[in-house]
Every structure is written in C-alpha cells, then in structure tokens.
Write a structure and sequence with these properties.
The chain has one helix and ten strands. The protein is α+β, with helices and mostly antiparallel strands and 165 residues long. It has two domains: 35 residues; 125 residues, Quinohemoprotein amine dehydrogenase alpha subunit, domain 2 (Lipocalin).
C-alpha cells in the first residue's frame, strides 16, 4: 500500500513540475507578445501611396527611412473645370518631397508631415497590417487621413501599401 502511495506522490510531483514549467513558458510567451510595440522602424522601405476620394485621385511612391524621415513623389488627378462627359481632367505632378517627417507611437498610430509647394499636409495614420521582420513589427499597410483638405478641398484618406523590401 505504501508503494502505491509513494508512486502516486511521485506522479503528482512530476505533474506539478510540468505544470510549473508550462505556466512559466506561457507567461513568457504572453509577455513577449504584449511587449511587441511599434516604433519608427516599423515604417521603413518603399510603399505605394494611393488616395481616391471626392472625385480626386492621387498616387505615387512614398519611402520611409525607418528613422523618422520620408520622401514622396505624387501625381494628382483633379476634376475638369466644367464637369461634362469626357472632359479632360487635370493631371498635376507635385514636386518630389525629400524632407518629410513622421513619428510612430507604440500602439501603431502616428503623424506624418509632408511639406508640398502648395502647403504642408499633416496626416494622422494607423498601421493596419504588419509582418514580423526579425524583432520588428514591419508595416505592410497603413491607413492615413489628412488634417486639412487636398488640392480641391477634398478628403485625403490614402492607404500606404508596402511594395518592396
């Protein structure tokens, strides 16, 4: 009888040790997951800037340096002066910007400021899709909103989608 009792105690001890190890592993995994935060390095590389709202579209490459600097080169498609079927729209090349800035909060929201010749545009944004690149949460898609209206006073709400490494 004591043999069975000793065996049961040993089994319970082994089970207790296994449960403690699993608990530690689970806690470390949860802490590692919750410790993943966004930084300026979450935005780095080449992205496609695409905006289509209120009868105005704009597009072009936007590049983030991972340190808070950005460059952008946009084309805007504006409505014709007298909207009729088949009227010619105005295609405007905006001068390339080489000195824009951005910041990223730990929750993936941020602010980007782009000084165009027509005026500075400030965007609030949120990183909406990511992938892991080593220890970095790398943005693969960003949704942004301009704090002021665009060239035609329209809403500016672009997406920035990662196009290369």
């Amino acid at each position: 009888m004591q043999n069975k009792s000793t065996q049961m105690r040993n089994i319970f001890k082994v089970l207790a040790v296994i449960l403690v190890i699993l608990g530690i592993y689970t806690a470390q995994s949860a802490m590692a997951y919750s410790a993943q935060t966004f930084t300026k390095t979450s935005l780095q590389g080449n992205y496609a800037y695409v905006n289509n709202s209120a009868n105005v579209a704009s597009l072009g490459p936007i590049t983030f340096d991972g340190k808070g600097g950005l460059t952008v080169d946009l084309i805007a498609n504006l409505p014709c002066g007298n909207p009729i079927p088949n009227c010619s729209r105005n295609i405007n090349d905006l001068p390339p910007v080489a000195n824009g800035t951005y910041s990223v909060a730990t929750n993936g929201t941020g602010v980007a400021t782009i000084p165009f010749s027509t005026g500075t545009v400030t965007y609030n944004f949120i990183i909406s899709k990511t992938r892991k690149k080593g220890r970095i949460l790398l943005a693969t898609q960003v949704f942004a909103i301009g704090q002021k209206g665009g060239l035609a006073g329209q809403l500016i709400a672009p997406t920035w989608s990662r196009i290369s490494d």
